[in-house]
Amino acid sequence: MRILDWIKNREVKSEFEKAFSDLKRMGEIEPSAKRTYELLRELDFDTSDSQSELLISEFNKIQYQSNTNSFFYFYFPIVTHILHYKPKYEKDILGYLIGPNFANGDTETKDLIPLIKNAMEFKLTENKNYLTKESKSWILNELPKMEKEVEREVQKCWKELNE
Q1: What crossing angle do the helices spanning 31-42 and 2-19 adopt, rounded to 10°?
Q2: C-alpha distances in angstroms, 130 versus 21, 93, 116, 119, 149?
Q3: How buried is 24 (Cβ within 10 angstroms: 0-12 exposed, 13-18 middle, 19+ buried)?
Q4: Is the pTM of this model over 0.85?
Q5: Domain total of the chain
Q6: Domain of life, per the record (predicted)?
Q7: How far is Cα 96 from Cα 60, in angstroms, rounded to an integer?
Q8: In 3D, which of 79, 82, 85 has the Cα closest to residue 153?
Q9: Residue ranges of the alpha helices (H) in 27-146?
Q10: Are 47 and 86 in contact (CB under 8 A)?
Q11: Which helix (H) or strand (E) holds 131?
Q12: Are the C-beta atoms of 76 and 97 separated by less than 8 Å?
């Protein structure tokens, strides 16, 4: 049985390492990215609230400087992986998916959910390891139920734009 566990863990880590290779590389120059990667590796349904809050805190410290598309595609696998295991943190991190698309002119809630699903399909055709199976599951099964939460993020964007 231990051999099967070892094989399974090796496969999971391999998938994880492939999906989060950009985060790992960023961790070489930014400590919060390194810590996020380490905490993300340990994330599951049983992760304690204190560990989850530490993950969210470190994640929010990452300063990824780029255009809106690169910003979205950097954060996309991280946010969706976290939300698969810890949906209660959507208020803290869903904006990383909505904000860049809003900045690109996608301001309608009804368009944003399909846009995010299409982004998943696009990236997976480029790189089959772009997302973990947990991320894919969240996008396909949970995101479509989150119209109200997406609308809240759109309204936040409008408020920030008008300030």
Answers
A1: 140
A2: 9, 19, 14, 11, 25
A3: middle
A4: yes
A5: 1
A6: Bacteria
A7: 10
A8: 79
A9: 31-42, 49-61, 68-85, 90-93, 95-103, 109-126, 133-137
A10: yes
A11: none
A12: yes
